[in-house]
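Re: weekly structure request thread

Next one in the queue (143 aa):
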Amino acid sequence: MADSFTIWTSKSFRIAHAYSYRLPGYLFVENLVDARSLNSLSPEASGELGDALALAERLIHKIIHPERLYILKFGESDDRIHFHLIPRTRKLLDAYLATETDEPPYNGARITAWLWKNADQLGHSTEEIDAFVKTAKAEIAAS
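Done, posted below.
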């Protein structure tokens, strides 16, 4: 299923921009084969997962230039394995530190939890998300 958030699709995985978090470069790597664990993936799907994660990471670094990149595997709201790739930019860190007490090395889990509650406070627009998706697709087409 292609939509305005989808950036790349293989037989087993899709890279899409996050649907509900307004942070340019917040990507999902979603499985399309209903795998519930990594060991349930076929060798082909495992290879596609590696390709998808590497591509998503490359796109985020090339377009956003984050200070850090968090990659998280979940299975709570959707028990199929999927990954969140979250660019921890200076803007995100500054917004987090404006309301929370933390010191280097920063706690990525706490920053992520804060982001999920406060993403709209960062002030990113739909146009910025659309621009990221468009740039990412162009980057893939050019490579």
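Residues 6-138 form a domain with the HIT family, subunit A fold (CATH 3.30.428.10). The helical segments are 43-63, 90-99, 108-118, 126-142.
Next request, please.
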